[in-house]
Model the fold of this input.
Amino acid sequence: MDQAPLTATAALRATVASVEGVPVDTRHWINGTRSATVTGTATPTPTPAFTDHSPIDGTPLAAIARGGPGEARAAVVAARNAFAGWAATPAAERARLLRAVADGVDARAEELAAVETADNGALLRSNRRGVMPRVAHNFRYFADRLLALGHEDFDTRGHTNHVSWDPAGPAVLITPWNAPLMLASWKIAPALAAGSTVVLKPSEWTPLTASLLADITHEAGLPPGVFNVVQGYGAEAGAPLTADPDVRRISFTGSVPTARRIAEAAAAHLVPCSFELGGKSPLLVLADADLELAADLAVEQYDNAGQVCLAATRLLVEEPVRDAFLGHFLDRVTKLTQGDPRDEATGIGPNIHPRHVERVDGFVRRALEAGAKAVTGGGRNPELGGNYYLPTLLTDVAQDSEIVQEEVFGPVLTLQTFPEGDDDEAVRLANGTRFGLAATLVAGDRERAARISGRLVAGTVWVNCFFVRDLSAPFGGSRSSGVGREGGDWSFDFYCDLKNTVTAPKGWARHG
Ligand code: NAD
Done:
């Protein structure tokens, strides 16, 4: 394979890289063709490509096309031009094509998993057994849902009301690095099912599987321009996409500050936005909880090295069971093996990027300086170095402290307690941040669990479980954790313009 040089920035050129033995074309995918740059359209970026590194060991993986306003515009124009044809494609045919994409994902699941792990450091076994099947399921689910979409007609004094979901137009989808293909496909599938055309801008830290997906959509037979990928940095490639006047929807998963910038850009053309943002979710452990289960669920929060938006990073434990719970928790943490995510025995891998590890460590340092105690972890893994941060639990933290209020997005949990029987205090702590993405409650008494969960501010509440996610459920966050809900028919509501057609019983020309 023609592999671009990866050291001298000026010489970088996006072509086809070999990643884990898989050829990955790292150019943009616009209007059914590959391009490293789109010439003559607008200000070019300073260099035509940038280097993507693996978080596992810092190895340079590929030179990636560095999109700017020209590429963004070309992709939106392609999506705009393809829109009428795609919107008019019968639902059954759109569903067939989405299923063909799902089949393509299944057929290339091993390759996708290997490339994703090299690119974002998530466990290979999770990518193989959990993530890639779920990516395929996203496409099948929304294909099925499209065919079931409908609302019963209803009557108003003899007039018939008919509700339809009309495709809205080109959708810009902007995604983060922590679960790249999973989060992208969860937007791409409903947008395409809804009859919208798509421009995807994946994270600059994890650009690879989006590019493989472009190949898969092409092989599945998606017409040119229906699905486009623009690679590049947020400020250079993402920002012009969100400001483009031909865009009709923006769905974004990422951080709160970026969401604000996108909302400002979208305001110019009043483009509806769906935002799935950060979290600082609580895990409440009530005194009558199954403490083994509580400890299992708490340790699960280190999955993906803590880089999960839904992670319940604040452990809130009822005082009488604090020590017993902590004992079970620490038993499990000591058994967690940290290392190369491609190794079957590894339980926790690296964080995404040296800059991100620095940020995570900054939160921990400042918390320790403010009086927090690290019951376990508290720094980089001394044996592994690099991006490997020890699973960390901090106690003695104040509710209004930075470590309790801000999203760390690393393997860092805090532990606080509330007095026995004091549901008000449990709820006050649980709801006491600006976020509201999710909450987890571990309890023995159903009625108390229902009383407390009813008072939690969160898009999703899990009781005695975690991360059970059905695509039919509404998904999103409250407060600063998001705007809007996707999932099931809510996704179609977002990617379509809903229309009500009212037809009178009178005025019809007679036939015959
Ligand atoms: P980020 O906001 O830095 O970047 C996300 C994406 O936005 C990237 O593709 C980036 O290039 C792009 N971007 C950056 N600036 C832009 C701009 N001005 N205009 C347009 N696009 C721009 O977030 P991140 O660090 O990649 O992801 C981590 C965040 O994502 C965390 O806060 C996490 O909680 C959140 N997240 C939320 C969910 C959810 O479903 N709620 C899921 C996963 C991650």
Observations:
- The chain is about 40% helix and 20% strand.
- The chain has two domains: 9-277+484-497, 282-463.
